[in-house]
Amino acid sequence: MKKGKLVFLVLTFAMSLLLAACGNTPQETFTKSVDKASKPADQSTTTIGFKVDELPTTLKTDQTSAMLDGLSLKMTVANDQKAQKTATTIAVKTAGLVSLDVNLDLLVDSKAEKVYFPLADLYDDKGNLTTLLDQVTSGMFSQIKKENPDLATKYVEVTSLAQDLSGAEAKKENVDSKEVEKASKDLSKKVTKTMNDYFNSLPEDRFTENDNGDITVKLTQDDITKLATNLSKLLDDKDVKADLQTIFEANGVSADQFDKQFDAMKKSVDNAIQKMKEDTKAKINIDVTITPGKNDDIKNMTMKVKITETEKVKPETLGFTVTMKTTDSVKLPKFPSSSDVISTKQLQKIISESTASYYKSLYGNDSTTIE
């Protein structure tokens, strides 16, 4: 599979996720649900799944790409806007060259501007995280866990982790959260309108409804190209650029950096679309199925994607499925108190001391360097 196609597919997938976060005919019900999905409830839980269904033979022979074989990813985000707290759980599994079975959590307290990672995830042996880390560290990871059992109840405050890793000083910016929220809502509204305008332009018979009320629209390569072109035109809107700049700068990007990143993003999008228009050797099919909820929202969504290289003697297909389920309720885990939290520097000190102890037991000194 050519790199340009995969870049374009990632773009389409990202836009689809943004749309999700963001007595009628099936077409009217579909677009009404899409519009409602851009206006999430104050309390909501969204689960997004991604699974590779089919991997081309040429990718299976590539050692790096082969890791995607059998990949499944599940991310659940519980968000309470009133409490300004979010809990995210990510589960990753693979069945390819490298076997992964990992679950990780992040707790975000937006009001306090804190992000926590529970170390209990590293002490949970239900998956194979310990085995993988032991392979990388020659068994040292298990030794650290054994010598520090109390860490299983602790949380690492990872808000400034990037700063600690880079050694750069933190730049404290005065971020107006209301401005960021407004920019995000305005951007979501415009993206949703662009999507719905395109769906409404399609013939009604492109939308089908089954006996369970599920509505499906089948999108072709031509649909994806046109839809992506319409979305890319949003980047020419000065208000859209201003909204993006507000969001980027709230995440520490300077005005100069934003201009460079924005220009690069726009160029990349336009190039990907142009390559897709010129490519006659690939066939893309996307089936999008939604289950409307009682309040015209999207209760469930399934997006099945197939990209086939048609010029080959034996056509190869990359296939994957994206799923989404949303409920207007939330159950947040208990957030840590100050006594339960350690900094990344404290954790680094503990790891350093355990590492020295580990090597001393092996080589009779406290050096971490093997001669």
What does this entry show, briefly?
This protein is 42% helix and 25% strand.
Structural account:
The chain is of the alpha+beta class and 371 residues long. The protein has one domain (3-119, 154-333). It is built from twelve helices and twelve strands. Helix 2 runs antiparallel to helix 8, helix 6 packs across helix 12 (344-363) and helix 9 runs antiparallel to helix 11. It is globular, with a radius of gyration of 24 Å. Residues 162-173 and 367-371 have low confidence and may be disordered. Keywords: Signal. Residues 1-20 form the signal peptide.
The H/E string reads HHEHEEEEHHHEHHEEHHHEEEEH
Summarize the biggest pleated sheet: 12 strands, mixed
Radius of gyration: 24 Å
Structural class: alpha+beta
- Binned, the helix content reads 40-55%
Strand content: 25-35%
Tally of structural domains = 1
What's the number of extended β-strand segments?
12
The shape, in one word, is globular
Number of helices: 12
N-C termini distance: 45 Å
Q: Quick check: average pLDDT?
A: 81
| Poorly predicted runs | 162-173, 367-371
For the largest sheet, list the strands in their spatial order: 7-8-9-10-11-1-2-3-4-5-6-12
Keywords: Signal
Organism: Listeria riparia FSL S10-1204
Protein name: Lipoprotein
Signal peptide: 1-20
